[in-house]
């Protein structure tokens, strides 16, 4: 039995949902409403003490961290292989997934949080907000919530994260141009594609000045191939209740301006 605790099909949750749908794995879906701060409730922290999604529970064994989950899913469940068969290929794949986790994802995450958290907590009193903060198990996350809900990050930080996003987009487009193949590693669709797409998915809307047909044609061609995959479409049809809290028009307008000269 596989239970998956997840939020909307975006970022790290999307990463895991993509792998599961590509493999054709059956699972019990448990939606965790981030807009209601359910990831910080005691019932969920008993599953993942870090208070973060996604998490899987396979035959009673709990695994968190989306990149680790995806390698586990590919190794344990039947279905199309999402990792290269040879060790060198696996190493190249992990270089990409590590880069996404340590560089691409954090830059996008901080920029998104800098505007999104304000909208989620706007109706809370200072006392209610502080009570929510105290439920967050990781101090680093508490600090992130407090900063983004109040004054926000300084402009120089936003500019640096935007530079990192621009660098990331250029890196992906260049890699695809250089080998001229369909997928990040070449001919085989792998977890590297899944990791990159999970972060890049909203960018043609929120960062259209960075990721577009003219400036990043190879990346956009890859993006369109990703959007045509059955696994992608199945993952993207999972519940997305956050749309009710955060207006997409606001998202496009704010994300496209943050950290921009």
TrEMBL record:
<dbReference type="InterPro" id="IPR004045">
    <property type="entry name" value="Glutathione_S-Trfase_N"/>
</dbReference>
<dbReference type="InterPro" id="IPR010987">
    <property type="entry name" value="Glutathione-S-Trfase_C-like"/>
</dbReference>
<keyword id="KW-0808">Transferase</keyword>
<dbReference type="GO" id="GO:0016740">
    <property type="term" value="F:transferase activity"/>
</dbReference>
<dbReference type="InterPro" id="IPR004046">
    <property type="entry name" value="GST_C"/>
</dbReference>
<feature type="domain" description="GST N-terminal">
    <location>
        <begin position="1"/>
        <end position="81"/>
    </location>
</feature>
<dbReference type="Pfam" id="PF13409">
    <property type="entry name" value="GST_N_2"/>
</dbReference>
<dbReference type="InterPro" id="IPR036249">
    <property type="entry name" value="Thioredoxin-like_sf"/>
</dbReference>
<feature type="domain" description="GST C-terminal">
    <location>
        <begin position="86"/>
        <end position="248"/>
    </location>
</feature>
<dbReference type="Pfam" id="PF00043">
    <property type="entry name" value="GST_C"/>
</dbReference>
<dbReference type="InterPro" id="IPR036282">
    <property type="entry name" value="Glutathione-S-Trfase_C_sf"/>
</dbReference>
<dbReference type="InterPro" id="IPR040079">
    <property type="entry name" value="Glutathione_S-Trfase"/>
</dbReference>
<protein>
    <submittedName>
        <fullName>Glutathione S-transferase family protein</fullName>
    </submittedName>
</protein>
């Amino acid at each position: 039995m596989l239970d998956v605790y997840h939020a909307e099909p975006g970022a790290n949750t999307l990463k895991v949902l993509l792998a599961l749908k590509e493999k054709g794995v059956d699972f019990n879906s448990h939606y965790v409403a981030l807009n209601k701060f359910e990831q910080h409730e005691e019932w969920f922290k008993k599953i993942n003490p870090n208070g973060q999604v996604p998490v899987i529970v396979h035959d009673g064994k709990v695994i968190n961290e989306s990149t680790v989950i995806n390698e586990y899913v590919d190794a344990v469940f039947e279905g199309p292989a999402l990792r290269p068969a040879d060790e060198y290929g696996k190493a190249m794949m992990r270089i990409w997934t590590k880069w996404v986790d340590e560089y691409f994802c954090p830059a996008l995450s901080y920029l998104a949080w800098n505007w999104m958290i304000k909208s989620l907590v706007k109706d809370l009193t200072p006392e209610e907000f502080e009570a929510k903060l105290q439920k967050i198990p990781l101090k680093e996350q508490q600090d992130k919530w407090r900063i983004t809900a109040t004054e926000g990050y300084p402009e120089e930080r936003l500019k640096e994260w935007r530079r990192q996003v621009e660098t990331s987009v250029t890196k992906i487009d260049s890699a695809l141009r250089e080998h001229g193949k369909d997928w990040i590693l070449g001919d085989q669709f792998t977890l590297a594609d899944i990791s990159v797409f999970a972060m890049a998915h909203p960018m043609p809307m929120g960062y259209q000045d960075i990721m577009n047909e003219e400036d990043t044609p190879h990346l956009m061609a890859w993006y369109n191939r990703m959007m045509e995959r059955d696994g992608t479409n199945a993952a993207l049809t999972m519940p997305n209740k956050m749309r009710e809290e955060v207006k997409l028009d606001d998202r496009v307008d704010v994300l496209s301006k943050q950290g921009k000269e």
